[in-house]
């Protein structure tokens, strides 16, 4: 077999060198698009976890003073989110609990620890500080201040920043749906990317939790339908009678009632 023409070999080498970066970029883009559903699921699961932990804390605080949980609800949510973040991402796990369930973790790049700490401060402490600041300004009547006063100017600046932030969050979410890289603005600014923890494991949708919820819902509906049809006193007497018969327990009867004649009502005699 004759050797290939050097001209063809050079043309092939130049073509490969030009197309290989494009193929690599296309492959990375496709992989990032495939995980955007997992990222959204992880964000929803983290929110549900915070809500589940908030309920027992609120119940405990309601025993101390009624209305205390509602007054400090923002602080409760912030503390729960901070503890969960510290125990998951902050403890070198590189993923929250929900992200771990979705086979996701943050890609470790230069200055990863510093950027993760900044991410926790900005994503948890930032919204809390902003909400408390806006709430305090609103209670102090900054919105009703004279139009030319410093308070009115600061209030309008705060409102403008809120609108810009909402528009930026909407644009970032649209970019996330298109590219699947950064679910939040803070992650985009800090360059924190979520990747598969184990790339060889494909993402599969599990319906186990949904099946449990459907079974539990059907069971509760059946119980709610059947309960009005059951006489509690008769049901209790039937259970006691069958338990005594199974355990062979003697039935204790008052001796005075036992010696009554057949034409006398025992219930009327006891009453």
Describe, in plain words, how this protein is organized in 3D.
With 271 residues, this protein is an all-alpha fold. It is 72% helix and 2% strand. It contains twelve helices and two strands. The protein has helices spanning 6-34, 36-64, 68-71, 73-93, 97-101, 112-139, 150-179, 185-190, 208-226, 232-247, 255-258, 266-270; strands at 104-106, 194-196. The protein has a two-stranded antiparallel ribbon with strand order 1-2. Helix 2 crosses helix 4 and helix 4 (73-93) runs antiparallel to helix 6. The radius of gyration is 33 Å and the shape is flat. It starts with 5 loop residues before the first helix and ends with a helix. Residues 23-32 have low confidence and may be disordered.
Secondary-structure map:
Elements: H1 6-34, H2 36-64, H3 68-71, H4 73-93, H5 97-101, E1 104-106, H6 112-139, H7 150-179, H8 185-190, E2 194-196, H9 208-226, H10 232-247, H11 255-258, H12 266-270
Antiparallel strand pairs: 1-2
Helix pairs in contact: 2-4, 4-6
The count of β-strands is 2
Q: Output the number of helix runs.
A: 12
How would you write the strand order of the largest sheet?
1-2
Order of helices and strands: HHHHHEHHHEHHHH
Percent of residues in beta strands? under 5%
Shape: flat
Low-confidence stretches: 23-32
Question: How helix-rich are the residues, as a percent range?
Answer: over 70%
What is the radius of gyration computed over CA atoms, rounded to a whole number of angstroms? 33 Å
Mean pLDDT score, rounded? 78
Distance between the termini: 116 Å
What class, by secondary structure content? mainly alpha
Biggest pleated-sheet summary: 2 strands, antiparallel
